[in-house]
UniProtKB/TrEMBL annotation:
The lineage of its organism: Bacteria, Bacillati, Actinomycetota, Actinomycetes, Micromonosporales. It comes from the Bacteria. This is Transposase. It comes from Actinoplanes couchii. Residues 8-79 form the Insertion element IS402-like domain.
Amino acid sequence: MYVARGDLSNDEWAVLAPLLPVQAARGGQWRDHRQVVNGICWVKRTGSPWRDMPERYGPCKTAHRRFTRWAADGTWARLKAQVVALAELDDGVEWDAQADATIVRVHQHAAGAVKGG
């Protein structure tokens, strides 16, 4: 399997794989979770539209459907909670954060100023 920069490593996948839904005995075959999760991560990391996802991750419709399905059923929330819990056990989380307070002002012509006033 081709592993692109930014794809999940084997160690990262070993943590996530047991937390993902298991395929039901009936119905069609799911595309490999690792391939699809890497595609979802690519879209979220780059901010690109789903349709621009590289072909190596499979069909963009598959990734989008799985992303929305797992968001609705709480899979992503469970993954996040488990990963944070594991990181806290290893003292791998630093909860200090900073926010950028940059202010960007709109030009007066775009801000709704009265014309000619």
